[in-house]
Design goal:
alpha+beta; 4 strands; two-stranded antiparallel sheet
Amino acid sequence: MNDALRAIGAEGLVRDAGFPEKWGAAFMLADEATSATPISRSPRRARSADVAGPSRTFDHLLLRHAAASGADVRECHRVEDVRL
């Protein structure tokens, strides 16, 4: 995720927002066995691979960043047709 945030110029914005860093994850499989995929800090990876926090807050932060970057952001609108 950090690569994508860096590509759109939002890496520092997200880091400065104070989201807790996530260094690993555990996934519950359908048979209820748990599988963990740790993410460790190394010289190649100076930052964590992900952040944790309310998606509503994260999404709003990225929406504001898009608007500040020049995107035409419209809220409370209904899309009734799309022309490609």
